[in-house]
Specification:
Helix content is 36%, strand content 17%. The protein is α/β, with parallel strands linked by helices and 255 residues long. The chain is built from 8 helices and 9 strands. GO terms for molecular function: hydrolase activity. InterPro entries: AB_hydrolase_fold (IPR029058), Esterase_lipase (IPR012354), Hydrolase_4 (IPR022742), MAG_DAG_Lipase (IPR051044). Keywords: Hydrolase. This is Alpha/beta fold hydrolase.
Length: 255
Amino acid sequence: MGVLAGAEPFGHTGSAETGFLLCHGFTGTPASMRAWGDHLAGAGFTVRCPLLPGHGTRWQDLNRTTWEDWYGAVREALLALLATCRTVFVGGLSMGGTLTLRLAEEFGDRIAGIVLVNPSVTRLKWDTRLLPVLGRVVPSVPAIANDIKKPGETELAYPRTPVRAAASLARLWAIVRADLAKVTQPVLLLHSSVDHVVEPVNSQLVLRGVSSTDVTEVVLENSYHVATQDNDAEVIFTRSVEFAKAHAGQPEETA
């Protein structure tokens, strides 16, 4: 099966000065990031949003991938942006925020700043501990997708949550949490006051764990989890442009 219509990766070539990498969420697609990417492109940024391996086709395909595959895709896209743009920012939704944090942990000040929208680094529900066992016997559970408050808005995502892939995501959470202190870049963290997918403790852990001295927290009062497609989307888009323009001159170029 090919890529679903609307789930394709996208990019906009703008200024060679500033690039913006966007990372979509678990079981989602670049469709959830497209309006954000268009807004960034309208502000003159070069934008890239890859389709993560196992996504945008059938949920069964996601069970054949691991977090290393997803991270490899965003890492490759970041390296390409770093090769063409003087200054690069990374933004992500949900698991895209997890991947963004991991990139920040690895690449340090080569990334000028990060924008996190409802990032995930843990899950408190009891069944999370059982994921590795469940994955051997249960291929999928009900979907986590489409948590949107805005009427008539639909997320292009899988109708089921692949369990083996979810277990791999849980392993990534543990790695990212352990290294949060390595995050030193400016951080813009936007999280919904009501989120039925990612619990409030996630943003708290990130805010407490990073070493960044420049951290801005924005509460999205009128959106659920997929905030990039919800009522507060314009807040995300506007604040991320302001954030990037304010920090574009800060990082030193690396050899």
